[in-house]
Design brief:
The chain has helices at about 15-25, 30-40, 45-55, 80-95; strands at about 30, 60-65, 70-75. With about 100 residues, the protein is α+β, with helices and mostly antiparallel strands. It has a three-stranded antiparallel beta sheet with strand order 1-3-2.
């Protein structure tokens, strides 16, 4: 019998990273402040979780300017989409076995 948690991705153990990925799956791109507001997080807390996802190459960071103000947006990568889908499929299998 296969280990039921073998396909779970440790990066998604955090509810915050799970939330970020859930938001990015349904949005092409989203800004830092919008993510912060949706997840009700501080700048530092969100930034550290986004950094983890970026290091894993699950998200892409887009930095630019709107007028004179900096603008940072995020999008999910193909690798991130695949990893998140695998994680959700593993969760679904676990739930169905209960």
């Amino acid at each position: 019998m296969k280990n039921p948690i073998a396909d779970l991705n440790k990066i998604f153990d955090s509810r915050i990273r799970l939330g970020v990925m859930s938001i990015l799956v349904v949005n092409n791109e989203i800004g830092f402040n919008d993510l912060k507001q949706m997840l009700e997080l501080t700048d530092g807390n969100l930034a550290s979780h986004l950094n983890t996802l970026e290091q894993a190459e699950f998200i892409k960071v887009h930095k630019g300017f709107i007028g004179r103000k900096t603008s940072t947006t995020y999008s999910i990568t193909t690798l991130g989409t695949q990893a998140f889908k695998t994680h959700l499929d593993a969760l679904e299998k676990i739930i169905k076995k209960l």
